[in-house]
Amino acid sequence: MDVGEIAIPTHFWFLISLGLMKDPVTLSTGITYDNNTCPVTNQEFMSFDQILNHALRRMIQDWCVENRSYGIERIPTPRILVIPYEVSRIRERIMGAARRLDEKKCRELVGKIKAWGKEIERNKKCMAENGIGGYLSAVFESFTRSSANEYVEILVEILTVLPWMFPLSEED
Fold it and tell me: Which residues contact 53 (CB under 8 A, 6 or more apart)?
């Protein structure tokens, strides 16, 4: 059987191209789109109210696996998207660790911020929009006030992440 002869289930179709969805997201309107762009304008959605449709993606992946003998390749699992709530939680945790001058915990949390930023550009944007830059600046200031020489490692780590956050908001 040829790949062209395989019927893609209609629920897995991307309605514009009539191809297989690879990264389905659902908006608060209930409409499911493929990836993070509008199918009509090709512009990126500005709202972070997108919900990754994991159930649909898993069903599509299962269908791909079942049909691999026909040349269908399994779609990859998308990268982790950070949501504002997670940014808020890490801000609270990093500020608490900075107040205690807990360099180890701060390095761990800055490492997590770095990892999120390396995953996908949208994560950097979400973190910047949710004020992580101002918090990192405050953490930097806490450690420099105490002893810049003693806390060089964390200061360097923060400096590697801060450029992602520019321009900082006025309150930062």
Answer: 24, 25, 26, 32
DSSP lists the bridge partners of residue 26 as 32, 51
How far CA 79 is from CA of 103, 116, 147, in Å, comes to 29, 9, 38
Q: Give the angle subtended at the CA of 50 by the CAs of 44 and 53, to the nearest 5°.
A: 115
Topology of domain 3-70 in CATH is Herpes Virus-1 (3.30.40)
Sketch the domain layout of the chain as residue ranges: 3-70, 84-165
Cα separation, 62 vs 65, in Å, equals 5
- Mind listing the pLDDT tens digit for each residue in 72-117? 888 777 777 788 999 999 999 999 999 999 999 999 999 999 999 9
Grade residue 2 by pLDDT with cuts at 50, 70 and 90: very low
What is this structure's pTM?
A: 0.58
Cβ pair 98, 139 in contact under 8 A: yes
